[in-house]
Design the sequence.
């Protein structure tokens, strides 16, 4: 296959295997305890409903025609405290966000070969970037926890940019920042819509890896230049180098 100068990686479902669940009342009872610690008194159902309502409101307020926007989850938690007349600082929001993530996550682990793959690309003097639809309050601690944080030349997270894949803006912001040309870049991810479609929209090649977290393949007409029909990052490494 063609050699590229820069490789853009998706995170969840591509380098990290994860499962989260925010639906159970047991989860919301636990989160309610953390809000109570800061004097924001909710019952679990009230907190759950207020959370999802606030997420919807934030999304509606930031909607832009022709763009896929991304909200900042910290703003959601801030508003949940405000509903109860409580003013909290950024440290408290960061703490609540991490408790929220930890308690909603049943497992989180690197796919086999993830570190080996990134290390080999960097050793070959390739540029390696992370381009993820995610919340930085959740993702940055997880990158540090898994050892991935220092493996990239830059980390681009949708909540910080304000737009999410496949919106061209999030791709273009990375390309412009690092003076990259699309023909020299390869997007690698497990989602045909967000990763492949987003890359193709700006003329970039893509490598699709089907994983357990991959979405439906029937919704996207874009065909990636390369693909693996199963998760195998060591095989991916052999194909890339």
Sequence:
């Amino acid at each position: 296959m063609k050699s590229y100068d820069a490789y853009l990686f998706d995170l969840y479902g591509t380098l990290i295997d994860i499962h989260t669940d925010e639906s159970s009342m047991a989860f919301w009872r636990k989160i309610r305890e953390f809000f109570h610690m800061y004097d924001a008194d909710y019952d679990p159902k009230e907190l759950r409903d207020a959370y999802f309502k606030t997420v919807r409101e934030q999304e509606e307020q930031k909607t832009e025609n022709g763009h896929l926007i991304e909200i900042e989850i910290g703003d959601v938690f801030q508003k949940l405290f405000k509903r109860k007349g409580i003013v909290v600082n950024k440290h408290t929001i960061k703490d609540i966000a991490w408790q929220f993530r930890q308690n909603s996550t049943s497992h989180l682990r690197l796919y086999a070969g993830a570190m080996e793959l990134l290390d080999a690309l960097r050793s070959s003097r390739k540029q390696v970037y992370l381009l993820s639809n995610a919340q930085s309050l959740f993702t940055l601690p997880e990158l540090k926890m898994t050892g991935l944080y220092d493996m990239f030349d830059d980390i681009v997270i949708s909540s910080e940019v304000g737009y999410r894949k496949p919106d061209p803006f999030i791709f273009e912001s990375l390309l412009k920042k690092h003076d990259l040309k699309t023909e020299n870049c390869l997007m690698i991810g497990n989602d045909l819509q967000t990763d492949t479609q987003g890359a193709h929209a700006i003329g970039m090649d893509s490598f699709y890896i089907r994983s357990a977290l991959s979405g439906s393949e029937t919704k996207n007409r874009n065909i990636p230049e390369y693909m693996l029909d199963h998760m195998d990052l060591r095989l991916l490494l052999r194909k890339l180098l």
Summary: The chain has two domains: 6-18+107-240, 20-106. Residues 15 and 114 are 6 Å apart (CA to CA). The mean pLDDT is 95. The beta strands are 6-9, 16-20, 105-110, 127-132, 154-157, 185-189, 205-209, 226-228.
